[in-house]
Amino acid sequence: MTRLRVLVTDEVDPRGVDLLRAEPALEVDERPTRPWRDLVAEIGGYDAFVGRSATQLPADLLRAATRLRVVGRAGVGTDNIDLPAATSLGIAVINAPSGNTIAVAELFFGALLSFVRHLPRAFSSMRDGRWDRSDLLGTELAGRSLGIVGLGRIGGEVAIRAHAFGMRVAAFDPYVQRERFELLRVDRADTLAELLPRADILTVHTPITDETRGMIDAAALNRLPEGAIVAHFARGGIVAESALAAALESGRVHGALLDVYTKEPLAAGDPFRRIDNVLLTPHLGASTAEGQRNVAVDVCVAVRDALLTGDLSGAVNLAGVDRGRWRDLRGAVALARQSTEIARALLADRNAKAIEQITLHVGRQFAGGESLLAAAVAAGALRGITGDDRITLVNARARAAERGIAIAAVPLQAAEDAHTIRVAVRGEGQQLVIGGVAALGVGPRITRIGEFKVDVAPRHTLLVLTNADVPGVIGRVGTLLGAAGVNIAEYHQARLREGGEALAAVAVDGRIDDALRRRLLALGDILSASVIKFGDTGDVPD
Fold first, then answer.
1. Which structural domain, as residue segments, surrounds residue 75?
2. Is 178 a catalytic residue?
3. Are residues 271 and 328 in the same domain?
4. Which among 235, 304, 397, 419 is annotated as catalytic?
């Protein structure tokens, strides 16, 4: 058995790496951190990459990674990865968004308490033999107003701990539902401008995006109360550093707690190093033994499952469903893809190769997974016809759109259709409907091919025959396949009326090549023979 190869670098915690090594199907190579250009020659031999923030993964490196299916980032951010390039190439990017949550929240309060109680100065003075008690009058957190930008995992943990200190807490996050604010007992600001004047202490916990880059600029800092403290433990670039340095030097902002910077490591001559009212740390947010272990375990488990079971619930560049929901949808994802592959093959045999439109009909059991199922449909439509083997759930919809294939999802309301997936594929004036069921815990089954009702599991190869409804056809087909060494797993014959045209869906083990297909067509009463070899898109196991 050929093993899947995983490259691990950047000193990922061994407890995560050990989980990968424990899998017989995986071959794990650990390497020290190197410049990305040193990886170009060997990255093409790996199916997955796991690292931290030290190794850069630009587009040039990803393009050289011709086998790469998954990139795992042991941490929250993905800023060292060219995410658009990875998405275009069909590479799933998985991070560990919750593993260092506690570490960052605790560091924030450690830094804040150190600042307001002058602990760095106190320690330094004591080491120098002084007793500067009268010069080290601090302030308390109780009664102060904390403004949080970003009420996700880390922002939420900060809010919980702020209440323990007796602080008043408000937050701005347009992507979080009002119920979460209420659950965390946090006042909701509808805009950043509304939050800033209320924040004696402002802390930022958002990802770096086009929307957040530079959002805490000079205008924002001027909206803070006189003497406010600004804390930045998220990603460099969200706070405009030159504007913050100017506000600190003018006294407009009383102090700053900084753990992340636009350029890291911080240059020796950086202005922040000479400003007294700043507490600087060297990107320590996730630097706890527990945090590093947690993110390593989380990302290695996610990479393992992505490779071995197709679970992409942790991918940041795929329309997400949570882990439990992903398991529920696996059968439906496979069925949607395979149904489309059947329709595409049958239409191609009717000289309708150019697919124009696919309508996906989704049963109630799969509500909420329409985007993922549409990606599976797109993958089924494109597999093997684009000249690009890297069609996966990650990039399939974008590639389909490039080829002018419109995909729409329509709900099925009837109770009896709750577990049904049906695709209507149109091309060059012809339309074909393929459908099936994917009940939880049961493998998907094809139950409709065009107007014919069938019942067959889409195994690795499906033979679809049309023939005259006369005696002896099934026997002749079985004899021919048996003589060719092709084992029949299931044979389902369907007809619309006695003596008319019949359709057979035959699931087989083994290969039906073009020569064998021609021999089938030469049998008496066989009208058509289509062979569908179901593909593995790299993320949905057959």
1. 4-99+291-309
2. no
3. no
4. 235
